[in-house]
Prior knowledge:
By secondary structure, this protein is an alpha/beta fold. It has 13 helices and 13 strands. Strand 12 (317-320) and strand 13 (325-326) form a beta hairpin. The two termini are 50 Å apart.
Amino acid sequence: GHGRISNHRRLLMSGSPGNRRILLLHNDxxxxxxxxTGLNRSGFSVITAEAGRLAMHELVHDPPCLVLxxxxxxxxxxxxxxxxxxxxxxxGRLPLIILVRDIRVNDLDxxxxxxxxxxxxxxxxxxxxxRVRLCLxxxxxxxxxxxxxxLPGNSTILHETTxxxxxxxxxxxxxxxxxxxxxxxDRYGYARGDEVLVVTCRxxxxxxxxLAGTDGFVGxxxxxDFVFMSAPATIEAICQTLIKxxxxxxxxxxxxxxxxxxFIDSVDRRGNHERFPIMxxxxxxxxxxxxxxxxxxxxxxxxxxxxKLAKSQPGSVYVKDNRKTEAGDPASDSHAA
Length: 337
């Protein structure tokens, strides 16, 4: 049950995914042996397609994690190979590395080829497994990353949380979300909403980098939910600086008349008028300074209580685990920036 899932997750995170099958498309038996031997030595298994006949039913049952195709397979050029593989609904989703003779490298239009990497022939024996590993770890990161902010997503956040818990060192983890983001989206549309998320990301990464350096971490859970981590000593300064900078720039995203009023006027489904204030930040800070945290689940449980507390207060606030509530007056805060 549960243990197996988290184990599987850990495998994914450590860059050794359960699936280590490579589909090799090649015509030269000697090269097939050479490439297969190198990949086997690095813990990959190799499926070779017989004379271009792909046994789809077998592949679908246990799909490969990557396609390695040599130019010249079945008499096809790199362009044709890439085009055919990309057009295939099943294989087209997999990362593709092309083996191409070094004298051909400059003949190809790499930008339009739609492949993930190439290996020039002749190559060093260990080059193929190394390129395959790089390609897979790049894919792992990009699949986890948020497409809008490019910040790491849930798998990395979980991994980072677990690492900090297991290290035994004091740490602080903060959940940040935007108040009244939905009403902003409803009024101005998703493109404007996305701009706000990108700016929030920029403020967040800059402040955490300035104040926590390499000890800091920023992740994007999704939507208007973000996570950041640092040593407990720097977390409050980070929260205060974030609030200051966010409150300073956010009014610029509203139309002048809404900004002047300080809220968005809206009508709900029952025809009642509602007023949504200018967006603000609610930050819930969990630390292991005053309590033991032994599991990522503990963090989210504590955080959700703190989040309610933060959300119940107007304006941008952060609430810290030791039940001390910090609620700066946004007006005076913004002057201090």
